[in-house]
Amino acid sequence: MITRHKSNLIFVNAIRQKKIIKENIVKWLLIIFVLLWFFILILFPLGGIIKETVKNGLATFVTSISSPASLHSFLLTFIITVIAVIINTLLGVILAIVFSRYHFKGKLLLESLIDLPFAVSPVVAGFMFIILFGPGGWIGSWFESVNIKIIYALPGMIIATLFVTFPFVVREILPTLREFGREPEEAAATLGADGWQSFWLVTLPSIKWGLTYGITLTIARSIGEFGAVLVVSGAIINKTQTATLHIHHQFSDLNYAGAFSAALVLAIFSFAILTLIQYIYKKRGSNNLESLSVKSFSGRSRGAVFSKRGRRPHPIHGQSDAVLSGAPVQKLVFFACFFKILIKTAPLATGC
Fold this sequence. Notes:
Elements: H1 2-56, H2 58-65, H3 68-101, H4 107-113, H5 116-119, H6 122-133, H7 140-145, H8 154-165, H9 167-180, H10 183-190, H11 195-224, H12 227-233, H13 243-252, H14 256-284, H15 286-290, E1 293-295, E2 304-306, E3 313-315, E4 323-325, H16 336-344, H17 346-350
Antiparallel strand pairs: 1-4, 2-3
Helix pairs in contact: 1-14, 2-14, 3-8, 3-9, 3-11, 3-13, 6-8, 6-12, 8-11, 8-12, 9-11, 10-11, 11-14, 11-16, 13-14, 14-16
């Protein structure tokens, strides 16, 4: 009996060892595949851009990025990005609140249309805007009559960028608002808070990280947008040429030094933005991201309610704090748009 029991144990241990070895093989194969894919898709293009830029020398790099055309393209990209971030942040928060708080006919259709920029090619979107706002277009004829130029000018480029970056903020904060629910806002109202106080002290803290990530993705996509902006801008040098269009123009003119230099600047800038957000995420700590707790309207003293006469809370002694638990914030892949920019500049690195 003892011998049989020992043989059974040896047999079970052998099976376990085989299973462990097989799991380790699968694990390392998957890790190697992911690292290899990451290297081919991300590091290889980035390394190619850095190599070609360094090969031309620092003086060539400085001369290329300090030319009037380069500086104007960077400035125009900055202006378009700032405007797109401001408008889409405001509209994104409003739309997310409307879709999460109210019910009306056609809501499902409108919510599905939010993802339209993801489904439509940017080039197709650009042609759509030409049909709408171009000379003789459906709306463009009216703007033309009042001497306002949309297509092949800055307004058209802003509209195209707004379209392609529209879903990011909405999609990042809408799930959080739905999980957060209306109970904390209703609790705030019972304590005397008006709509603005409830938004600033209850709703906004619950969506701040989703909002931050949405803004970051909007910035990265605005910087790297090419197709829609190319169609509606005309890529006129020193007028309607953004940084990505400038890179394309330099590459088409066989000015590889200028193309590599501008591409490296865009890649570094995008990487810096996303790294900053990652640093803030870690600085805050994962506990704050997993569960946001907002103590209800306590000032310096514990337990406070809003005074309807003034904006500041006044304390009520003996009242306990109400803890408003926010929804867990979804962890995101920060470098998605940075990867997209590198993918777009990959032909430059490989010389294709």
